[in-house]
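Hi everyone, sorry if this is the wrong subforum. Our group has a chain we'd like a structural model of before ordering constructs, and none of us has done structure prediction before. Sequence below.
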Amino acid sequence: MNAYIERVLEDVKKRDAHEPEFLQTVEEVLKSLESMVDKHPEYEKAGLLERLVEPERVIEFRVPWVNDAGEVKVNRGFRVQFNGAIGPYKGGLRFASHVNLSVMKFLGFEQTFKNSLTSLPMGGGKGGSDFDPNGKSDGEIMRFCQSFMTELYRHIGPNVDVPAGDIGVGGREIGYLFGQYKRIRNAYENGVLTGKGPSFGGSPFRPEATGFGAVYYLCEVLKHEKDDIKGKTIAMSGFGNVAWGVAIKATQLGAKVVTLSGPDGYCYDPDGIATQEKWDYMLEMRSSGRNQAKDYADKFGVEFFPKQKPWGVKVDVCMPCAYQNEIGMPEAEQMLKNGLKYYIEVANMPTTNEALFYMMDKGLIVAPSKAVNAGGVSVSGLEMSQNSERLTWKPEEVDAMLLNIMVNIHAASEKAAEEAGLGYNLVAGANLAGFKKVADAMMAQGIV
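Answer:
Right subforum, don't worry. Here is the predicted structure as tokens:
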């Protein structure tokens, strides 16, 4: 390994030893950058990598709120403004019990390169809280969101930091957050948040964007392999917004998605999650707050596998759409044993580094999440443009722009890997392509 990269990695491991998710993503990214760092010794003199792995700003705050029983509850709020070299900080808010500083830093670091890949002027950031909206009433969620924004508003703005939704934060939560921001600021700055409803400045295509974009990226991978999505079977995890979009677009293009999952287990639907009724029910499942995949099995009479993951099902394509590190070595070995051809990460960092490198070493085609799921933030970036111009675009216009962005992301990743002599290595290619734009901007702006 390049001595400079090795030294920076060792420093990060010492400094942030208690942050496993952050260490995982830093190691995966930096190891991909060796060829570029070798060509640019000036990076070391400028301390580029040391600055790259350190967030520009970390904000942590308490969030007091009152539940329906009149009890005062306190959660932790976070906003990590990781890198603003190419634009305002941009990244979602995640409300989930697993949220901590390590998770926020890992997501913000990943977001920096993901946003760079889109070619839109957005820096990297991420935020959220360990508040779990599942099982909470609308009133409780509203009061929590209002308290959360009462602190967050100080640190964001259309030209400073533009949060969006993520796990646990959908259109309802974004609406409550924006209402409180507007109330405090006494200004209609609707460019401060994306993922808004269409009635107050949101993109009409944002809910579908991440899932649709992931399928568009899959199609580019298949084209490279002189293959086609028609007739392909797909296993996916999750049943939220992203999985919903994957199921719809994959079906429209002739594939069949046969699994969905939750924390309670997974469902196998041999007929495919392929009808409007099934897609609508996925939205009902998400909004119910129950977080139970078994509801789908009960509704449609399909087989349910308690406390199991869907990666033992024999399919052509696996698309994890749920949480980080849901796939380790046992799952990777099972997928390869089943003759899997394409592994397309959709959730952020769904694969342990050990499993990721193992699958790549075995010749499996692996597409990384920072490229595959960039469709969501791409449409968020387009929503920012619409808000700045006081315009509204039609859904088909946004869809066409999304398709073009995903095609370009795949092409940029492929080209970067080939120029580095790495062949069709989309993982390294995405890191290299995303890093170059950020590095150039950082070098041009001096030691800041």
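For your construct planning: The chain has 18 helices and 13 strands. The first strand starts at residue 57 and ends at 66.
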